[in-house]
Amino acid sequence: MRFDLTEWQGAASDAYRTWAGQRDQSLQALAKASDTMALITEGAGLLIATVRMMVRDAVATVVSRLIVYAGELLASLGTATPLVVEQVSTLCASWAAKISRWLKELISSLRNLGTLVRRLGEIVQELIARLRGSRGLERGLFREGDGIVRNGKKILMSRDNVLALAKKYGIDLEGVNFSIDKFRRGGGPGKEFYGVTMPDGEIKLARDAFMDEEQLARTLAHERFHLDELRNGLPFPWTEEARKAYEARAYAYEERWWQEHKHLLEGE
């Protein structure tokens, strides 16, 4: 087969220019995001300082008025006590309400700023990920990791790992309520406890399920089969006999499913 070297060089140059343009755009966006975070931080500091000065001045005003009221009380030789007490109570209640309102508004503003900062932080992380994952030829063929974090053969116990493995093996967890029980484990070899599907449809994954990729994949497929049967209208097996029938179907499905999907593990 004959290759046109000139045409190939032109295509490569176009691809590089495209990648370089995208990289520069990401860098500019990252710089703007960093500047925005700096401005938000500075604004939050100014907001706190302003409220602090307002509270300080309010306290000074209250103290000065109390001194005046004390003078009035002394001048009246105690006869104005009821009036002074009423004035003091009104003054303190009024300024306490103002200070309370200022503090509530300050907390609300800081919460709003916190939400913006968190969202901006997520955008920055996305930009950093894009920069780290950028390649000279984005249309080239390359192999990536599966996104699953491991410790040797063990899968680290996290929701992100469960979702990444489910995506790798084509297990649909959309709308599935699952949790990770980091304390429950089986009784040793041959008595492992991997997971359970609860009557309300929640799937609980135990420690043994994370011993390696195969066991976690099998457990997810197994428990998802239970969930599908329940969602399709089968009653929850409250008796031991009914439970054994459920498990027999689930184990049979699990084995067939693994034979069809184990090549995904062998390919790693």
Automatic annotation (TrEMBL):
It comes from the Bacteria. This is Uncharacterized protein. It comes from Paractinoplanes rhizophilus.
